[in-house]
Amino acid sequence: MKWAVGLVLWLCMAVIASAQPVGDPTPLQYRDRAEEARFHALTAELRCVQCQNQSLADSNAQIAHDLRREVLKLMHEGRSDAQIKQFLVERYGEFVLYRPAMETSTALLWFGPGVLLLAGAVVLIVQVRRRARALPAVVANDQTQEDREW
User: Fold this and answer.
1) Chain CA centroid to CA 16, Å
2) What's residue 8's pLDDT?
3) What is the largest CA-CA distance in the chain?
4) How far apart are CA 17 and CA 25, in angstroms?
5) Measured between alpha carbons, how far is 22 from 65 in angstroms, rounded to an integer?
6) Which of 10-14, 27-31, 77-81, 106-110 has the highest mean pLDDT?
7) Is 130 within 8 Å of 80 (Cβ atoms)?
8) CA geometry: angle at 128 spanning 124 and 144, to 5°?
9) What end-to-end distance do the CA atoms of the chain give, in Å?
10) Which residues pair with 55 in a beta bridge?
């Protein structure tokens, strides 16, 4: 009886191990090479809403497959890249764009890294100057102690 339970468990594990993630059942159909190039350029500019650090073109998540199909459908409807991006922004927010529009709400995204880099450079310069001023005093004190020892 134990061997039957073990066999059933082994078979279940084999089935689970061979399971494949749900993928795109049919490949995307482009009308021509220009449309394909436009599609790839557009999906490279859009972020996967599940993966967060991958573009829509690179992601293997199921929602990325669905969004790629949606983008191609919108392209077939004759929408421009800007209209497609606006459609996705209305649905998922500015997060879906790798380069969000320059607005007051996104100013930190645009200028934050530069401000942090500049602040770090200022802190570094201040620290180097403080050490440079303190160094001659330390060297002078060491030399006077050496003179006293002689």
Assistant:
1) 31
2) 63
3) 95
4) 20
5) 10
6) 77-81
7) no
8) 160
9) 95
10) 47
Q: What is the 3-state secondary structure (H, E, C) of 21-86?
A: CCCCCCCCCCCCHHHHHHHHHHHHCEECCCCCCCECCCCCCHHHHHHHHHHHHHHHCCCCHHHHHH
Hey, which residues does 97 pair with through a beta bridge? Answer: 46
**For the chain, what is the mean pLDDT?**
81
- Give 38-85 pLDDT, tens digit per residue: 999 999 999 998 887 899 989 988 999 999 999 999 999 999 999 999
Dist. CA 120–CA 31, nearest whole Å: 51
Q: How many residues are there in the chain? A: 150
Residue type, 139: V
**pTM (predicted TM-score):** 0.58
Q: Which residue has the tokens 């468990």?
A: 9
